[in-house]
Amino acid sequence: MAGPVAVVTDSTAYLPAALAAELGVTVVPLQVVVNGVSRPEDIGSGTEITFDAHDVVSALRADRPVTTSRPSPQVFVDTYRRLRARGFSAVVSVHLSGDISGTVAAARLAASEVAADGFTVEVVDSRSLGMGLGFGVQAAVGALAAGAGPAEAARAAAHRSLNTSIYIYLDTLEFLRRGGRIGAATALLGSALTIKPVLALADGRLEPLERVRTTQRALTRLLELSIAEVSPAGPGEHDGRGTSIAVHHLSAPERAQELADRLREQLPAMGDVPVTEVGPVIGAHVGPGAVGVVVSRPAGA
């Protein structure tokens, strides 16, 4: 009889360690390089020396160089083989957008290698990040718990992530510019470094959406954009039931909590709106002060 199917993701899903353990999800960390020192992104395991969000915020504010890199394919090979040795029959491996990181490419190379051993790994490019990826991971876990096979669970993860919208407010585009991850936002650089940019994740890439003059206006726009995702016809048309929303930030807990409170007030049937700080990989590119909202709609929404 076939064994259970494992779910793997990477650290940019920012699943709390306790939740990842509860779901039985294996988390592979990306690498962070601060001032020439490379360490894994902190995933809350406490088993090795890592970089966390505080480390990166301190480095960015001190103008020390911060870069990030994907896990090597061998890290994924080792991860998949360990899971096979534990009795898993296959793996669903769900990762952040391939247009942002080479992580999913490394996972695919590893999947090809272990396939030669007769072990199946379904790799999913979520085209998302943060809880946009995390909601996809949870969809895969849920599908497997309901009796789905690896391919069906991979489709469930992809569908949920692709049915997710992300809007991000940044204090500045400077950190995205440094990391080379702003795509079409390059056109805004002449003036955007002195105003407040709002970006959206579009087809796996961060793209400019609007420019606003104040932080408060930016938070209001994040609220308006989120409500429009849940209820396109306006407030009251849809109360948010079945939709999952999460708020992320980097070194801006008050801003993030304000946004979450306003979302709960406007969409009372939606339930909890978790507020979490992103880790150093995403944090290195968005910079301190960033706030993002993730809206994940159910199937058919």
From TrEMBL:
Pfam families: DegV. Keywords: Lipid-binding. The keyword Secreted does not apply. SUPFAM superfamilies: DAK1/DegV-like. The keyword Acyltransferase does not apply. NCBIfam families: DegV. This is DegV family protein with EDD domain. It comes from Kineosporia succinea.
